[in-house]
Sequence to fold (101 residues):
Amino acid sequence: MTPGEATLWKYLKGKQMCGYDFDRQRPIDQFIVDFYCKKLMLAIEIDGYSHDSEEAQERDAERQARLESLGVRFLRFQEEEVCGEVEGVLGVIEDWILSHA
Fold:
C-alpha cells in the first residue's frame, strides 16, 4: 500500500465516508481498483509515479473505459495530492457522494 493509499484508507474504512462501505484493492472484471464502493459503483484511484509514463496512462485509460462500460464511475487523485491535501481530497469525495447518492 502506498503512503497515499494508507492515508485515504484511514478515512474510508469502517463506513466513515458518509456511511458508505468501501473495499480496498477490490477486483472488478480482470482489474483491481484501489478503493471501491459497490453501492455507489464508485472506484477511487490514486495515481503515483508509476502512472506518469505515456504507456501507463494509455493502460489506465483503457482499463477505466472498460470498467466504465460496466457502470463503474471513477474519481482519480495524484499520490502527492492525497498525502499533502487530504482534507481537499475528502471534500471532493464527499461532494461526489452527496450529489450522486
Summary: Residues 54-69 form the longest helix (16 residues).
